[in-house]
Amino acid sequence: MTDGGTAPGTAGAAGLHRVLEPAGVLPQAAQRLDTDPRIRPDEVRIRVERLNLDAASYRQLHTAHGGDPDAIRAEVLRIIGERGKMHNPVTGSGGMLVGVVDEAGPESPLGLEPGDRVATLVSLTLTPLAVTDGLTGWDGLSEQVPAQGHAILFARSIAAVLPDDMPVPLALAVMDVCGAPALTQRVVAAQKGAPTVAVLGAAGKSGCLSLAAARRAGASRVIGLVPTADEEERLAASGLADLVVRADARDPVAVAAAIGEPADVTVVCVDVPGCEHGAILATAPGGTVVFFSMATSFPAAALGAEGLAADVTMLIGNGYVPGHAGTALELVRSEPAVRALFTSRTGPDSAE
Q: Which stretches make up the L-erythro-3,5-diaminohexanoate dehydrogenase N-terminal domain (predicted)?
């Protein structure tokens, strides 16, 4: 590690001492992190079992390498090896992981004990990570990556002990997107009356959770937008949306036409870039757009709203809302349609 004492105040708690370059930035903005397994008194070392790459990052890697699993695996290994974290330089995103607590420093505030199986609820873009198995157990064909190695959590990191009533792949997939339903619930509940809510990318993991959360928070009408006939059929059969429509979320006019009467709240859960303007057009004056995708462009959203003279409030979901993991897990437990959509994406071992 870079030095021996505990760094004071916020800098130490946030992991500034793990930054190797450039100096003075926090771990998320760093080019390279220190992955030394020796921990400080307020750190926790995790024995890694599985990574979950975020959807935008995996899609970019898959596209860039033409779906070649060996090339995708090599690229992920290169990024982790060079940066000391999983931080996709193209999308700027990472994901999260599951592992077992190896050692917890005596001053760690996270409440974790050796032997706890946990999911980290902070991004891999700021988590020191070393992989030791060459990712040989990963076929390169999914976002979930069996792995061996270690990761470091800081005092201001977030982690949750995995529930014992769900298979690990399912729990990991839920926790990876748990910020989306929690913030959707908060935003919808704060609206006057019973708002109409539109979710773009509604058949995906964060999308189906957001649909369920919006309805529970008091939405009068929930609309799900999807890109393909297959997703339209599956989402319609689930009953999670009052109306399921199909359009390319990157086509603003098509999105607005598909949604029809503009929504009071629009939630964007699409993992490709270029969906900002459609979301703005689909939202009523005075409404709110919530962007959850890591593919979102802030300039495109801000300048697009300005250019359209759109009086909308735009929020960037930062992945953390107090109680977010519990909110998402409860939705999966209590909504069979949500669980079915998740397991259709995470594989048969998550349906047990």
A: 17-163
| Mean model confidence pLDDT for the chain | 92
Domain presence at residue 3 = no
Residue 167 lies in a domain: no
Q: Is the peptide bond before 22 cis (omega within 30 degrees of 0)?
A: yes
In whole angstroms, give the CA distance from residue 207 to residue 226: 10
Is residue 6 over pLDDT 60? no
What's the token pair of residue 121? 């609820």
Asked whether residue 105 is assigned to any structural domain, the reply reads: yes
Number of domains in the chain: 2
Please name the residues in contact with 273: beta carbons below 8 A apart, sequence gap of 6 or more: 250, 295, 296, 297
CATH of the domain at 218: 3.40.50.720
Q: Given strand 144-153, what is the order of strands in its sheet?
A: 129-131, 144-153, 44-53, 95-104, 117-120, 159-161
Claim to verify: residue 51 and residue 153 sit in the same structural domain? yes
In degrees, rounded to 5, the angle at the alpha carbon of residue 51 between the alpha carbons of residues 174 and 349 is 60
Sorted by sequence, the CB contacts under 8 Å of residue 303 that are 6+ apart come out as: none
